[in-house]
């Protein structure tokens, strides 16, 4: 387990995944600053065009391929359909796996904060929105999407660190802000496991 923690501290290509509203973007931005690594928002850079128009899939994959070839990044985005491209280049995955009510409240707070405008990590011309499809996505994320994520992570044997509560998130931030010898290492790191 200590190896996985030291890997996080040394990693130059980190993937942060999880359900919308859980805090993965906030964590990815913090890590980007902490480790001086380029922040990559999949929503902004690959997926969306103005007006919430989805970029064609072949174009998305070409752009992702070009970006992951770079030597350093913190990538914010779950999108398991591009795991085959991203996971082989990822040194460690941080899975922000919060309870769905917390994700729903986070998405609602975010909507209230950014209502009518695009967040910095979203493509221009895509103002913050919450609709029933998005609520359903969050509500069913663990049942519908987590098994796909687990299978993808197992297939590529990437070290995984799961964060399942705000308390664990604070511990991780405290740990990374202090030193690599914290108790966080032995209590919350899961090496090569996503379950």
From TrEMBL:
Coiled coil: none annotated. PANTHER family: DNA TOPOLOGY MODULATION PROTEIN FLAR-RELATED PROTEIN (PTHR37816:SF2), YALI0E33011P (PTHR37816). This is AAA family ATPase.
